[in-house]
Amino acid sequence: MTTTGETDKTTEARMPEAVITDEMVASMKARAGVNLRIDHSVNNEEATRIAVIKFAGGIGDVNTLWTDAEQARASDYRAPVAPPSFVIGCFSGIQFGWPGLGAFHNATQAKFHAPVYWGDKITATCRYDGFTGPRPSNFAGRMVTDHFVNSYRNQHDELVAEIDWQVVNFERGSAKSRSKEAAGDKARPELVLPHPWTEDEIVEVEQQVLAEKPRGTEPRYWEDVEVGEALQTLTKGPIGLTDEVAFIAGGGTPIPRLKAHAAALVDYSAHPAWSFRDPVMGSSEPIYAVHYNKAAANAMGVAFQYDVGFQRQCWQIQLLTHWTGDNGWVRSCDSQYRGFVYLSDVVTLGGEVTGKSVTEDGEHVIEVSTFARNQRGANVMPGSATIALPTRDGAASPVARRVKSA
After folding, report:
1. How many helices (H) and strands (E) does the chain have?
2. Per the omega criterion (within 30 degrees of 0), is the bond before 134 cis?
3. Whether the Cβ atoms of residue 335 and residue 371 lie closer than 8 Å to each other
4. Phi first, then psi: what are they for 315, rounded to 5°?
5. Tens of pLDDT, residues 210-224
6. How far is the C-alpha of 176 from the C-alpha of 302, rounded, in Å?
7. What is the mean pLDDT of residues 169-194?
8. What's the rounded Cα separation, in Å, for the pair 337 and 330?
9. Using one digit for the tens of pLDDT, what is the confidence trace for 126-166?
10. Neighbour-count burial of 1, counting CB atoms closer than 10 A to its CB (0-12 exposed, 13-18 middle, 19+ buried)
11. Cis peptide before 382 (omega within 30 of 0)
């Protein structure tokens, strides 16, 4: 706020704005199928003990399988191991193309093939598979959806994970105008930001968080699981600034990798679309600051700071590994990011078993649907997953099947 009679516009962050043109469309079509340069957005290359511990802490995962070397050695992994989502902390995404448009990560499909052990070195690649659109949007004037494929290989050139992900790009100026209209819309009194929690409500949420324990060493056998069975919940929030900082510091990859002072200005001078001028501090800030800087979020056309798409994906994976136990394996999972998770929100994740089967190679799997509901009742991340579980017949567990050497 100003105290000199200046208008509110002096405290508005401004980002480059553009509309989708035929030239943009032709340029992006020509890039389809290209393996992108991602050096500036690779956040980690090695699963050191500290890197794994920081990542687990940064996503709020209290499963000691990832942090207790002796527990991991006694498990079917036979050695200290990282959570499946650790690859997201090595590389998640990249700013690419469509200059002057706003962008939201809106969906992810992940496949996990092999464990990542402490000491493994991970090499990531990212391929641009083109886009769909342009098409009209209720949120902005027009939008396009980009499609990317990430691959992660260890030092033995083994494929440990693949992640397909999509990004919606939109005409930012139109979105800002509609966001301002929505902010004055008296028909949405339920959207008060930050959310006005009472102390009793916060205590109740925190008690729920502390009560949600990972299954751990007790096997969850395929024979014992019933279709329609509910997954144990996982609660996040009220989400604060430190939660976002911890995600970044723990390896949740900012795009591009965060830098300071001259190191940042050199990048911003070469890539003006990567940054904006903070109207209060006068500093150059990364576009990624929408997740912790209100002025940045407003400039993107959003009312308040909001979470990171891949951060939400890590929560879904944590929900699954908590429920599955140390002997099970998350084969794949997918999710759609619907609506924003604002700072101050509480999100409860859960799901239900929807099917059981045996694969062609004899692995016993279950299918689950998942959700992530905020305190307003909106499902902000519907998804699904396929999980391999151990059986009571004494056969090797899904984890043991994937362990070649340790």
Report:
1. 11, 11
2. yes
3. no
4. -65, -40
5. 999 999 999 999 999
6. 7
7. 61
8. 20
9. 999 999 999 987 766 789 999 999 999 999 999 999 999 99
10. exposed
11. no
User: Whose CA is closest to 75, among 357, 305, 397?
Assistant: 397
Spatial strand order in the sheet of 159-170 = 123-136, 142-153, 159-170, 102-112, 329-336, 383-388, 364-374, 347-358, 234-236
Angle between helix 241-249 and helix 49-59 axes, rounded to 10 deg: 160
CA-CA distances (angstroms) from residue 45 to 80, 95, 247? 17, 20, 17
Torsion sign (Cα): 242, 243, 248, 250: positive
Q: Give the C-alpha separation, 185 to 79, whole Å.
A: 55
Q: Tell me whether residue 270 is exposed, middle or buried, using C-beta atoms within 10 angstroms of its C-beta: 0 to 12, 13 to 18, 19 or more.
A: exposed
CB count, 10 Å around CB of 157?
7
The answer to whether 202 touches 147, Cβ cutoff 8 Å, is: no
Is 374 strand, coil or helix? Answer: strand
Contact 335, 381 (CB under 8 A): yes
Whether the Cβ atoms of residue 369 and residue 321 lie closer than 8 Å to each other = no
Structure tokens at 300: 């993107």
In residues, how long is the chain? Answer: 406
Under 8 Å between Cβ of 125 and 41: no
60: amino acid identity, one letter:
G
* Separation between Cα atoms, residue 33 and residue 216, nearest integer Å: 41
Residues 310, 87 contacting (CB under 8 angstroms): no
CB 234 within 8 A of CB 383: no
Any bridge partners for residue 165, and if so which?
A: 108, 148
Give the confidence band of 190 by pLDDT, cuts at 50, 70, 90: low
Cβ contacts of 268 within 8 Å, gap of 6 or more: 274, 275, 284
Region of residue 5 (left: phi > 0; alpha: psi -120 to 50; beta: else): left
Closest CA to 92 of 180, 146, 190, 164: 164
51 phi/psi in degrees, rounded to 5: -60, -40
One-letter identity of residue 90: C
- Quick one: average pLDDT of 337-342? 95
pTM (predicted TM-score): 0.91
Amino acid sitting at position 92: S
